[in-house]
Specification:
The complex is a heterotrimer of chains A (422), B (1009) and C (90). Chain B has 1009 residues and is of the alpha+beta class. Helices cover 22% and strands 27% of the residues of chain B. In chain B, the strands form 13 sheets. In chain B, strands 8, 9, 12, 13, 14, 15 and 28 form a 7-stranded mixed sheet that branches. A 7-stranded mixed sheet of chain B has the order 42-43-44-45-41-35-46, sandwiched between helices. In chain B, strands 47-50-49-48-51-52 form a 6-stranded antiparallel beta barrel. Chain C is mainly beta and 90 residues long. In chain C, strand 1 (2-5) and strand 2 (9-12) form a beta hairpin. The model of chain C has no long low-confidence stretch (mean pLDDT 94). Classes of the chains: A alpha/beta (422), B alpha+beta (1009), C mainly beta (90). Chains A and B meet through helix 1, helix 3, helix 4, helix 6 and strand 12 of A and strand 6, helix 2, helix 3, helix 11 and helix 12 of B. Strand 16 of chain A pairs antiparallel with strand 32 (604-605) of chain B.
């Protein structure tokens, strides 16, 4: 059923009884051309682009829980491409291009809202590093503006721009056409669109082993409804974010340049519009925006230790709230409604891996750290290209698994091979 | 006062005192009584509409009497204290309280936004996802329609209005430790507290409301012959006096973290009319408990029926609480609707308090005679086997329509009756409040007998008691409380002796004996608009629509319909919602499961979580000379946590003019600069030399005593990590300096190798950054300056050669002087004990007067080292190797060191890497920070080939123009090439020439002179 | 989360600095194999379950502690000192 204002009115008049499931709940076939392990944002978008761009529709997406149960449904919804290094700025700008059209491509309103992403600077030196990044963006065809203090104050009236602030605001770097999108809608929109193109989405189906044909990965063994079954495929892609280590172990890959940690996210009670842009603190680590519902959605650093628990601890609460209030002193009286945790696949340089291998018949999409949401369209687009052609696209050719050992990390922060510092 | 205030007497209005209190709501003055909540006072004044719902802006009244309230949200206070979305049920009334309704325009009684209701069916779940895609046009404009609509949607959403005026209050934190934390002071919590306190264990007891006792405060039962509330008051007083007990009221335990760490929030002044500014508004208690007893009770849930959101519909126990505790009739004529015995008790207690109960409607046909008898006590009409098919009324309930109910099919019969009433007290059973244990990951288990989820197996040391653990009723509460306390004591190794470990019979209870299990009825489906989540306007039909569209998992249900995502987090709606979903999917509730609760339990002010960090995020670090810098007119600059002088501006001077003057003076005469912020590490031990040899890329083993050496530190992956000089003070003792920013991480880096990699090495490390103050003296006249003030040592070229270190005395202050040069001039670093920093500064300034010494700041410091081509933070950006920065000579080939192996990777010898060069402006234009090097014009710059790192104006005669260090692809071989420094965000495009980065005195004659 | 420092006793984990996987041990100084060093720096088992990891009590005594901890439940199984004074602390 095509979604539109007309469809809503028509159905409303008929008591909303005729709506049909957004995606089918099919039984698995014995064999597919491509299996994508992981029904999160990246897995679903990969399936969609395999079908829509490469015409490969005999595809299954295998999800152990409910669709979108991972980080696509538990992030702070920020969409941006304000990167410093060329491989990243090219890749993320491709993502922006897809974001702008996404609601149309999917016939599903993902509520992409390009309200601007503002990174604050608190010293002249930081203004220079922001300028360096802003210039890189401009040279790569990405919009960016360096704002002075007054411009920042006009944009965000609640910000403390006074000289008496502990870290006074000097200005900021604005990506005016970056912003937010509704996270769940992205998962559901991709799922529905992929399903309509013939992709089978298999929820509550857990991969428990990989099938082998000699050296080659030939599909997966799954548990579904208490039963064990085999699903064969020519090509098997893995896009399971924080669970990459778990899943790859089943394929015999015991060690990877990835560690799993928890990132907490926070939302306040709903209030009428109070901050217009996504705003980030420059003297710490905090990003905040306001959802359409009115809640402030914010987050900061990961909980530094390795963790697979989808929950975090108190020190990060104290840190993020104090940074938020340092930026917006009036928010001390706003109230935190809810916090949650997601498990992050932190790579050794803070940048992702989208590549063929590491085994024949296998393809890996991982290492998203805490930037995976904004990458969802481009990640799927590039991963689909890589799977379909057995070769990376120009946009993801730097995102190899070997780059670490080759000495070619893509290290935005220059923090080195310490995953929890990225 | 009004028709709604009951005749106060013993057992009616137990929370109230005689004191009259004036408050305002929506600008109108009202009177209440001390002890009222804002909700009870509004009810007593006949104010039934207190808010509007989120989506449809339907009028809403008070629904509960506690922190689970979904409807009665108000905005409190004005100015910086303005607070939206406060639950009126929790606000303790005080003189002068100002409250306003919210999410309405123009007023709560007449809200134009209520037109949303007309499009009700179209505004169903998922509405936003299916439209607003707008007309398809190319490129950027494709979703412009949504961006246009979004601004209106945002304005319509969002409940109350926040403020942008800073909060005038402050917050505090208490770090607390105890043996057992007891959460809740109802019968179960009190019983656990009594038992645990008797054993001598240190306990903290937290109660959410102002008065301890929970349900005991409104209970009609007798305990040990006394009314329950009197017994409770005595028990609480006794506990409060015990030394090993900390009893906190108005304190909500919000979050349960790992290792029994809890966050509790105490509301210290929120209920006071006069806010003493010296007292924190709220206090965060970070409680580390060895064990915990969770006795948080249960939350009543409604039965969903058509029109169930009309003002006047409220939970039965809340209605009872308003009557008994607040002396307020919830309505003039109350109808009770229930599927369990507790609804009947509420009816009886209300009637006893003087409320007119007109009808009791119970879906069950099989009701015990003892319960039926309660109906007679109320003189209400009793309808068992009937259900409400709808509640009528425009701005509040005026009547209910009831119909015969078939318990097997859930269908309503044709026969119906209309009963006039203005309040419906509804009870759909009780859901244990195990939010805290669920936060910890405990998996709830459905109990079909009790028709409730129970908390499940503990993952940490906690024990549930009372209704939270499914142990309903006073007898069970007392018993389970004591059991839980004993288990907690056993967990912490304080198991009492066998005899005393027995659970006692508990106090004697006289009261009603009832069955707490409800009939499994969650919704009466009669086709009208019936609300599951009141605040978010999620209807039963929305839940079924979600099912129809395949959103059947509980998480999808929540996310697709937003059920349970409002400020009440679904406390009264989650179970009902998933029961309706289970019915639609033909599944048992046990198989549908429930969502995990996420912290906090109720919304918490951000200020109190930040606690003492609110307002002073991070301590400022100041050097010993800070005050002198200010006196000398320095602009201070935040450099990480440090404040450092940027430049010392003379009157009328700009920063640029000042640093150029300072730089020139240093090159021609002498200047001094505060370098105290450098990291300093004392390295001692017989293996110290070998240790340094391993962590630096260049050789350190053969450094003689009394000499310093510049060293490079690499990460294991071969990239540069930090640099600095290290001075050999004695045979086995070194003073290492690091960059200011690297001080902490270098220390950790060294400790890692010392402790974990080479634990057999005999070397000790101590951070002494704060112990030493340091001043660099630079310029051709620096030696004259030192000669004029240093005693007890020879600072001549012979006595103190380049890179030499000596001990001396300046104005009675013991100093270490190292002849080091960051500026490229003849220069020294003079260190003394930090306490003498200011005195040393003054002594050097005084000695330098005849040489016209100037103090110089970071800008001049930076200009000097840029001209010299010395690298610093911007070049050590974590992506450069020694080779990239022209420092290959610092990489020893005679030894292995941290990073040596991976630095040999092939990629690092590639010629097209970004390499250190300098550029100079060719047309006099300023090279602004953050420029990229490009080949093309401003209009068509082409791709970035590199970027500037450190820029300045060089006043040196060799240059006399704007210069910059830069990293350029293959830069070493491109000296003399003409490029542009493109800075589009700063609207600059400067023609530059590539130079060697050794710009001033490349042979080093000056610093060695 | 709380860790037990061998000197200071049980302390909040926020007093410690996380230093990562303690099963990754540096090749000896005489081992100049790029592969071995690469493995040490980049390869992580990243287990969902027991993890041996290194923490430095940086806001306290600065002793390193080897912690065995479950990465799924956050249960701390053991805390052992490491370094030149480890033997005295055991």
């Amino acid at each position: 059923m095509r979604y539109s204002a007309f469809a809503i009115l028509k159905n409303a008049l008929r008591g909303n009884r005729d709506w049909t499931p957004a995606w089918r709940k099919p039984e698995p076939r014995k064999r597919y051309d491509v299996i994508i392990v992981g029904g999160g944002g990246h897995g679903l978008s990969t399936a969609f682009y395999l079908a829509s761009v490469h015409g490969i529709t005999n595809v299954a997406v295998i999800e152990k829980g409910y669709l979108g149960s991972g980080n696509v449904g538990r992030n702070t919804t920020i969409v941006r491409s304000n990167y410093r290094l060329t491989p990243n700025s090219g890749f993320y700008e491709k993502s922006m291009e897809l974001w702008r059209e996404l609601s149309h491509s999917l016939n599903y309103n993902v509520m992409f809202s390009p309200r601007g992403v503002l990174n604050l600077a608190h010293t002249p030196g930081q203004m220079d590093t922001h300028a360096e990044r802003g210039n890189q963006m401009r040279l790569m065809g990405v919009k960016s503006e360096l704002l002075d203090r007054d411009q920042v104050a006009r944009l965000n009236p609640g910000l403390d721009v006074s000289g008496s602030a502990r870290f006074p605001v000097h200005g900021g770097l604005l990506q005016p056409d970056a912003g937010n999108a509704r996270h769940d809608a992205v998962a559901w929109g991709y799922a529905r669109a992929a399903d309509q193109l013939g992709v089978d989405i298999l929820e509550n189906t857990e991969v428990v082993d990989f099938l082998r044909d000699g050296e080659r990965i030939a599909g997966v063994e799954v548990m579904r409804g208490g039963e064990r079954m085999e699903i064969r495929a020519e090509k098997t892609g893995v896009a399971v974010a924080g669970n990459t280590g778990r899943v790859m172990k089943m394929a015999g890959i015991d060690r990877l340049p990835i560690e799993t940690t928890v990132l907490q996210a926070f939302v306040s009670e709903s209030v009428k519009p109070i901050i217009p842009t996504v705003t980030t603190f420059g003297a710490g680590h905090l990003y905040v925006s306001q959802s359409d519902k009115g809640g402030l959605v914010f987050g900061g650093n990961i909980d530094y230790y390795n963790s697979y628990a989808q929950r975090g601890n108190l020190p990060v609460w104290e840190e993020v709230t104090s940074e938020l209030i340092a930026m917006f002193p009036a928010f001390a009286r706003l109230r935190l409604l809810r916090s949650w945790g997601g498990v992050m696949d932190m790579s050794m340089d803070g940048s992702p891996i989208i590549a063929t291998g590491p085994l024949p018949g296998m393809y890996l999409n991982a290492g998203w750290c805490y930037g995976g949401f904004k990458a969802t369209p481009a990640s799927g687009w590039c991963f689909a290209h890589t799977i379909a052609n057995d070769k990376a696209h120009r946009l993801n050719e730097a995102f190899t698994l070997e780059r670490f050992k080759d000495g070619n990390p893509i290290d935005e922060l220059g923090a080195g091979p310490t995953p929890w510092y990225h | 006062m009004s028709a709604f205030r009951l005749n106060l007497r013993d057992g009616v209005g137990t929370n109230l005192t005689d004191k009259t209190i004036r408050f305002s709501f929506d600008g109108k003055s009202f009177y209440g009584q001390q002890g009222d909540s804002l909700a009870s006072a509004l009810l007593a004044n006949g104010v039934s509409i207190v808010g509007r719902s989120f989506k449809y802006h339907r009028p809403r009244g008070v629904f509960t009497a506690g922190s689970e309230e979904p409807n009665a949200l108000v905005t409190l206070h004005n100015g910086g204290r303005r607070e939206p979305n406060i639950r009126a049920t929790e606000v303790e009334l005080y003189e002068g309280l100002i409250a306003r309704s919210q999410n309405r325009w123009p007023s709560v009684n007449f809200d134009l936004m209520a037109v949303n209701q007309l499009a009700g069916k179209a505004f169903s779940a998922g509405f936003y996802y299916k439209t607003f895609m707008g007309p398809a046009r190319k490129g950027h404009r494709a979703t412009q329609f949504w961006w246009f609509c979004e601004q209106f949607i945002r304005r319509a959403a969002g409940l109350g209005k926040g403020t942008t005026i800073p909060d005038p209050d402050h917050y505090a934190r208490m770090n607390a430790f105890c043996d057992i934390l007891i959460v809740g002071t109802g019968a179960a919590g009190l019983s656990a507290a009594q038992r645990a306190a008797k054993s001598g264990a240190r306990i903290i007891v937290c109660e959410e409301s102002a008065r301890a006792g929970g349900a005991l405060n409104g209970s009609p039962d007798f305990i040990d012959g006394e009314p329950a509330r009197d017994w409770c008051a005595d028990a609480v007083a006794e506990l409060a006096e015990m030394e090993n007990v900390t009893l906190l009221t108005r304190t909500t335990v919000q979050s349960y973290f790992d290792d029994n760490t809890f966050l509790a929030v105490e509301r210290v002044t929120d209920h006071l009319a006069h806010k003493d500014k010296s007292i924190p508004r709220q206090r965060a208690w970070n409680i580390r408990a060895k064990s915990a007893v969770i006795a948080t009770g249960a939350l009543e849930r409604p039965i969903v029926f058509a029109g169930n959101d009309r003002p006047g519909v409220m939970l039965a126990d809340a209605a009872r609480s308003y009557a008994v505790e607040y002396g307020t009739a919830p309505g003039r004529a109350v109808a009770v609707f229930t599927n369990n015995d507790t609804g009947w008790l509420a009816a009886r207690d209300m009637a006893k308090a003087g409320v007119i109960v007109t009808a009791i409607v119970d879906v069950r046909t099989d009701v015990e005679d003892s319960i039926r008898a309660l109906g007679d006590e109320c003189r209400a009409s009793v309808h068992t086997g009937w259900a409400i098919s709808s509640a009528k009324g425009l701005r509040g309930v005026r009547a209910i329509v009831i119909a015969k109910y078939n318990e097997l099919t859930g269908e309503l019969g044709d026969e119906s009756k209309t009963i006039a009433c203005d309040c419906v007290a509804v009870s759909g059973g009780w859901s244990p409040a195990f939010h805290l244990t669920s936060q910890q990951g405990g998996k709830p288990v459905w109990d079909a007998e009790l028709q409730a989820f129970l908390p499940g197996e503990p993952l940490q040391s906690w024990h549930g008691a009372g209704a939270m653990a499914g142990r309903f009723g006073l007898v069970q509460a007392f018993q389970s409380g004591e059991e839980a306390a004993l288990k907690a004591l056993a967990d912490i190794g304080q198991a009492p002796s066998k005899r005393s470990a027995k659970v006692g019979p508990g106090p004697s209870i006289e009261g009603d004996e009832i069955d707490y299990a409800p009939a499994p009825v969650f919704e009466i489906n009669s086709g009208g608009k019936s609300f599951v989540d009141l605040q978010h306007d999620v209807t039963a039909e929305d839940v079924r629509l979600a099912h129809r569209e395949g959103f059947v998992s509980v998480e999808h249900l929540k996310r697709y319909t937003t059920l349970g995502m409002a400020t009440d987090q679904g406390k009264t709606s989650n179970i009902t919602g998933l029961a309706i979903m289970a019915a639609a999917s033909n599944k048992a509730i046990a198989d549908t499961g429930t969502t995990r609760f996420r912290p906090p339990y109720t919304p918490v002010a951000m200020g109190v979580i930040a606690g003492e960090k609110y307002g002073h995020l991070a301590a400022e670090r100041l050097t010993a000379m800070h005050d002198i810098h200010l006196e000398m007119g320095a602009n201070m600059y935040a450099n990480g946590p440090w404040l450092r002088p940027e430049s010392y501006n003379l009157p009328g001077e700009t920063v640029e003019q000042a640093y150029i003057r300072e730089t020139k003076t240093v090159r021609a005469g002498v200047g001094i600069v505060d370098v105290s912020t450098l990291g300093k590490i004392d390295v001692q031990g017989p293996d110290a030399a070998e240790f340094l040899n391993r962590v630096y890329s260049n050789g350190f083993a053969k450094l003689p005593v009394g000499k310093a050496r510049y060293g490079l530190m690499l990460r294991e992956d071969g990239f540069l990590f930090d640099d600095g000089t290290t001075w050999r003070l004695e045979e086995h003792r070194y003073l290492m300096t690091t960059t200011t920013a690297g001080a902490g991480r270098v220390m950790e880096h060294l400790e890692y190798y010392r402790d974990f990699v080479w634990p057999d090495m005999k070397v000790a490390l101590a951070s002494v950054s704060d112990e030493w103050a340091g001043i660099a003296v630079a310029g051709p006249k620096s030696r004259h300056l030192l000669k004029a003030c240093v005693k007890d040592c020879d600072v001549s070229d012979k006595g103190l050669p380049f890179m030499g270190v000596v001990d001396g005395v300046v104005d009675g202050i013991a100093v270490k002087i190292a002849r080091l040069s960051f500026s490229g001039e003849l220069a020294y670093e003079v260190y003394c004990g930090a306490h003498y920093g200011a005195a040393l500064w003054q002594a050097l300034m005084k000695a330098g007067r005849k040489y016209d010494v100037v103090p110089y700041g970071l800008e001049a410091l930076s200009t000097l080292r840029i001209e010299k081509g010395h690298v610093a933070g911007p070049e050590l950006n974590g992506r450069t190797t020694p080779h990239d920065l022209g420092l290959s000579g610092m990489v020893s080939s005679k030894k292995e060191f941290v990073g040596s192996v991976l630095l040999r990777r092939e990629t690092f010898s590639k010629g097209d890497r970004l390499q250190l060069v300098a550029v100079k402006s060719l047309d006099g234009q300023r090279i602004r920070g953050g420029s990229h090097l490009v080949a093309g014009s401003k209009e068509e710059p082409g791709r970035s080939q590199g970027h500037t790192t450190s820029t300045c104006f060089s006043p040196s005669p060799e240059l006399g123009c704007y210069i910059s260090l830069a990293l350029l692809e293959g830069g070493f071989k491109r000296h003399g090439e003409k490029l542009y420094a493109a800075n589009p965000v700063r609207d600059a495009h400067v023609a530059v020439e590539v130079l060697s980065h050794y710009m001033v005195d490349p042979d080093g004659g000056r610093m060695r002179g | 989360m709380r860790l037990t420092c061998p000197y200071c006793g049980p302390r909040d984990h926020q007093e410690f600095t996380y230093r990562g996987d303690a099963s990754a041990t540096r090749p000896g100084l005489d081992n100049t194999s790029i592969d071995d060093h690469n493995a040490y720096i980049y390869d992580r088992a990243n287990p969902d379950g027991l993890h041996r990891e290194l923490w430095n009590h940086t806001s306290g005594c600065r002793t390193h502690v080897i912690v065995e901890r479950n990465t799924v439940t956050h249960e701390v199984v053991s805390c052992q000192p490491v370094g030149p004074y480890a033997e005295q602390l055991k």
